[in-house]
Amino acid sequence: MRSYLDFEKPVGELEQKIEELRAMQESGDVSVADEIVRLEAKATQTLTELYDNLTPWQKTQVARWPTRPHCLDYVAGLMTEFTPLAGDRKFGDDEAILGGFGRFRGDSVCIIGHEKGSTTEDRLKHNFGMARPEGYRKAARLMEMADRFDIPILSLIDTEGAYPGIGAEERGQAEAIARSTEACLALGVPNVAVIIGVGGSGGAIAVATANRVLMLEHAFYSVISPEGAASILWRDTSKAQEAATSMKITAQDLARFGVIDQIVTEPVGGAHRNPATTIASTAEAIANALDELKVLDRDAVRQQRRDKFLAIGRTIT
Known about the structure:
alpha/beta
């Protein structure tokens, strides 16, 4: 049974009515085909109008929706011959960040991404996508390996932020994030990052410092969560909706500021309503970005990436 976000309740009521009418039709007691068609059209129109006018807070809710496609879904849809690699060679393995090598449309690619998990057990296993230092050290290790063998890198971003636990801080969380960001900047091969859900704080930027940053239409990307900003600014997390509006965290805002390079369109109703279409659209955007970058030599790749991020600081006031 489909679940609905709060603002989707009008659509939910219509779709529930459609299911009831279909059950009546299957029983053969009454013909309700015309009414089903009418309600389906109304549900589609209502959903389209809702998603054409989402507020930043509603986009935040969509980006966090648990049935939205996750990193592993993209890996399955984008890659062939995928071989996962584990461990940072210093402490251990962190399953909040997945990585490995495979083929994307026939070409070798290194893929790194945050995995939140889909079931309760998986979410605990992957720590809800919040990586510890060993996750970022693993990411840096894989990036350096890919650079050595001249293999482009694809990053899939979906995290509320790096894990803030005591153990993570003791093992050098800030240093690990900085090293991972440095590894991104030092690459002589193209790297493309895609914000597929939540791009939270340094936990996101550590693997998203890329030549091209793509972002799904209803994802969000921010230095802090709306709840965290509300807690700091007003000491009241109930003002998260107001914070989300003020922070300019949506794909549309960030494209206007030049923080991201391209918005990847989602199906009507969000990525969770049609994951296959979403992944196909993302694949096309990634392929186009890699095609644009593959003509550059190693020095030009580094320079383009450097200029991109310096330009953000110069233009945003």
